[in-house]
Amino acid sequence: MNVTVRLPGALREAAGARGAVPVEVAAGSTVGDLLDVLATELPAVERRVRDERGVLRQHVNVFVGADNVRDLALLATPLVDGGEVHILPAVSGG
Which residues of the chain have pLDDT under 70? Predict the structure, then answer.
């Protein structure tokens, strides 16, 4: 199945300046499965999303459609064919 990963400007450099990246995953895949594919296809993006233990970084939000995976099943959140995943790192400053 095909899922589109949407990236903000802060991550586009790691994705070859693309704001949307189509990713092919197996039927029944989860957000964790998607990130495993990204680790192969766009390792610089995946490293900014998960830490060395494979856990979602504290200051990164991942949305499946309009829902934050932190409010769902985290990396076990299921994906749907044709769905969108938005990766949003926290922005701070003073």
Answer: 92-94
What is the per-residue pLDDT across 22-32, written as a single tens digit (0 to 9) for each?
999 999 999 99
User: Sign of torsion, CA 46 81 29 41?
Assistant: negative
Structural domain count of the chain: 1
Contacts 24+ apart (CB under 8 A), 43-48: 44/14, 44/15, 45/7, 45/11, 45/14, 45/15, 45/21, 45/87, 48/11, 48/14, 48/89
What's the whole-model pTM score?
0.93
Q: Residue 80: give its domain's CATH number.
A: 3.10.20.30
Rounded Cα–Cα distance for residues 72 and 47 (Å):
22
